[in-house]
Design goal:
Number of helices: 5
Structural class: alpha+beta
Distance between the termini: 64 Å
CATH topology of the largest domain: OB fold (Dihydrolipoamide Acetyltransferase, E2P)
Oligomer: single chain
Number of strands: 6
Number of domains: 2
Radius of gyration: 21 Å
CATH class of the largest domain: Mainly Beta
Strand content: 25-35%
């Protein structure tokens, strides 16, 4: 491997990690489309002047190639930073329970992969992913993954309490079970 390709490989790994982190943290944020749109617009505007920086990395003088490179890399970094700061620096004193209505229950069947020989894989053990779609009092819907035992206790129309706290950028963050467990409160039938 040439030494010139090493920074590109490291940059690719960092960018994929940032997009993964942003995806996970956006799943915990109630209004996640607004910050994504703001990040992409900011990066698009800064790309008009910052595309020159990417000439050394891409080894290309074309503005479109460098602009797209800036758009992809900087968007991932800025989204991971935004959602990371919002969740990481959330104000714990604003933790409160919101009453949510269970709109839909889903079970997805997935398979782990087993390696048979080199380059040959087959479906392995089956496992299930349980998701609950909730409607919050402000009208927003959010899908959350829950455990199988908790999933079996829920029905459509149930009202449950979900712990929510105010994020650093004033975007509500849904607390995972470490912050407090969603407790089934009443059924509506």
């Amino acid at each position: 491997m040439k030494l010139k390709k090493f920074p590109l490989i490291v940059l690719s790994i960092v960018v994929v990690g940032c997009y993964g982190l942003a995806y996970v943290l956006a799943g915990q944020t109630l209004s996640s489309m607004l910050p994504i749109a703001v990040c992409v617009v900011c990066v698009a505007l800064t790309g008009l002047t910052m595309w020159r920086f990417w000439r050394r990395i891409t080894a290309s003088e074309k503005m479109l190639v460098n602009y797209l490179c800036h758009l992809v890399v900087a968007s991932g970094l800025l989204m991971a930073l935004t959602f990371g700061l919002n969740s990481g620096l959330a104000d714990g004193s604003t933790l409160h329970a919101e009453r949510c209505v269970v709109e839909n229950l889903r079970v997805e069947e997935h398979y782990r992969s087993n390696r048979v020989t080199r380059h040959v894989y087959r479906p392995g053990q089956k496992y299930y992913v349980h998701e609950v779609e909730l409607r919050f009092p402000d009208g927003e819907s959010k899908s959350l993954r829950v455990s199988g035992s908790y999933y079996r206790k829920l029905h459509r129309g149930d009202t449950i309490n979900i712990n929510v706290k105010q994020g650093f950028f004033h975007l509500p963050v849904v607390c995972l079970p470490a912050c407090g467990r969603a407790v089934k409160e009443e059924r509506r039938r």
